[in-house]
């Protein structure tokens, strides 16, 4: 397969437009262009055309769509043998796929049939030859990638090597080895995978049957065990039930409960009598204590009454002394208050005189400030009027920013376009001879000697004595309207600015700049005169005028008045100090009277309360004797009650022990009854379970299942042995093929060695038998791993390896184009020229397409130069 053209529309950066790469031929084809030109876009579009279905919306398809949306369309012309086809795909809305025969225009296939046609061309999808030979930008093919990508490309390389080794057919390599290993792998694949037994396979089925029988055997074994356990439990339960439910045992439990009940009732009666005696003892003690407290309270009240009488007399004496001190303090405070009032009046009079003097002085200063503010207001209003007039003038002559530059650019563009148009017009010139008797007239105007005059369309030359000569340019009118469009834009711009020429516009711009400078000066002056604005300045003038409405002449001398005020303040302070010194004595005297009166009232209240408790003074002795006799009687009653309670306490029965014995007897009876009921229910349940398992023949089923399990385990063991044998055979075959690696890789080495010779004088490459990719390179007797090579060396080795595989494909009758998208970005000048030689060497009967942004470096590649042109479907 070879590609002869690629076209794409509405793909990535080509939103709403189409481009085409035509004339792709055999050998080396080169498309060099700057970055962002669309080279990688073309590669991705071609890759999607062959590997992404038209109905898909995967990542590669989404990446084709421009940001503005739409339906990407990709088209390629290919040659396959002697036939030529056009493959077209559109993605997203109205998606389709078509294959057309270019020779006849016949539609060969469409939709899914077209996808099948493309799959047959590339033989294997991304893992086929095209996936192996098409190198994306930034990918060498040697770097670490996913397992799926490496395995897919390894399979392509392996099948390619096997198909071209016609002379190698030994058991250690070639197709027979591949067939045997494939057969072994197929047999293993039927049984196991890398993760274990294969689902749905015979081995998995055998394991499943063994596990199922093992589970069934375990279940039946458990059922047999449960049956035997149930028989043992039933025998034990029947024996225990016979022991607990006997007549003698039942009567003994009833007698123990009745005896404990009698003892508990006797203890309860004895306890009630003891409680009554204890209550009587408590009451007698309370009465005795109450009589004692009453006697003690009476005697305490007698003593307190005597003490209160003495304290009352002392309080009355202290109150008299406090009344005398209060009178003296009140007279001293009144004298100090009068002196303070006189000093306050003198100070107030002096302060009023000084305030009137200050007010007169402030009024005079306010008048002066008012005059100054009115002058500033007048100047600011004049500046504001001038500024408004300048703003109006600027609005008339002002021009939008950038308009002059745009007009100047248009003038330059018009000059160039006019020159181009004038150069393209036909012209005529006449050189008169000496004998000429007259001049030739062109369109009514005489044509001077040697004068060159151009014309549009046609012109007429009037030659005296000869006739009229008609000139026609016969030139097709040009579709280039750039001159007319530029003149229209110039007229529109001049109309918008209100001028006729560029010079007039510049004059207006100069005038606008002058006005703007004047406006800046006026704003500065206005800002200095009225920083807060004219409105604020007017408010200040009005406020000053209102505040300075009344003017009066100052009275007196300010210094004398301030001295008099200072003397008055000192006199007032002295008077206030004397008043403050007299006030504490007065307050202390008043506080002493209040304290004395409070103490006397308290003593009177307490004495009245005590006298109310004691009663009349003549009856107090008789009342004291009665209280003593009552206390003696209550004491004797308490002693008698204590003796009765002690007797009952000594004969009391332990009620807690009797209650515990009764509770224990009842619990024994209840527990035994519950055990009897539980044993009967357990025996009934065990009987039901035993009958059910006996009907199911559990032991017979268990023996049959055990025999089936033994057979299943034998089958699994046989499969295990077969798998082990196959795995050992696969390892042995792989080892044998590894030993014949050099012979196996001979075809690709035969193609790669001449290419390496273009770069190095003495170099050889060893391949990894697992990935079939270069593993080490030997130069000058030193071996290096590919992963440790420089980036340039790795990419060169990658490209050479792909060229070798491409040659093998061509030899095998499956030619595929090699497409490199900026695949030589790390190569130096010397190496890249050698790589160019390698590309041309391998391009015999082979198509190679190279995309690169290194225009200067790839000029030395040569080959068929490609270009992108506009295209519309």
Mean pLDDT, as a whole number?
Answer: 75
Structural class: alpha+beta
How do the strands of the widest beta sheet line up side by side?
A: 7-6-5-4-1-2-23
Largest sheet, in brief, is: 7 strands, antiparallel
CATH homologous superfamily descriptor of one domain:
P-loop containing nucleotide triphosphate hydrolases
DSSP helix fraction: 55-70%
Which CATH class of one domain? Alpha Beta
What's the CATH architecture name of one domain?
Answer: 3-Layer(aba) Sandwich
SS elements, strand count: 23
Overall 3D shape? flat
CATH topology heading of one domain: Rossmann fold
Describe the structure.
Among the domains are: about 1-170 and about 740-870, 3-Layer(aba) Sandwich (Rossmann fold), CATH 3.40.50; about 190-245 and about 655-740, no CATH class. The chain has a 7-stranded antiparallel sheet. A 5-stranded parallel sheet has the order 8-20-21-3-22, with helices on both faces. It has 20 helices and 23 strands. It is flat, with a radius of gyration of 64 Å. Helix 8 (about 245-395) runs antiparallel to helix 13 (about 560-615), helix 8 (about 245-395) packs across helix 15 (about 655-695) and helix 18 (about 745-760) packs across helix 19 (about 790-810). The two termini are about 25 Å apart. Helices cover about 65% and strands about 15% of the residues. It is α+β, with helices and mostly antiparallel strands.
List the helices and strands and how they pair.
Layout: E1 2-11, E2 14-21, E3 27-32, H1 39-51, H2 59-64, E4 73-80, E5 83-90, E6 96-101, E7 107-110, H3 111-122, H4 129-133, E8 134-135, H5 147-164, H6 174-191, E9 192-193, E10 196-197, H7 202-244, H8 247-397, H9 403-424, E11 427-429, E12 440-442, E13 445-447, E14 452-454, E15 458-463, E16 467-472, H10 482-497, H11 502-529, H12 534-547, H13 558-614, H14 620-650, H15 655-696, H16 698-739, H17 741-744, H18 746-759, E17 763-767, E18 774-779, E19 782-785, H19 791-811, E20 818-821, H20 829-842, E21 847-852, E22 864-865, E23 868-870
Parallel strand pairs: 3-21, 3-22, 8-20, 20-21
Antiparallel strand pairs: 1-2, 1-4, 2-23, 4-5, 5-6, 6-7, 9-10, 11-14, 12-13, 12-15, 15-16, 17-18, 18-19
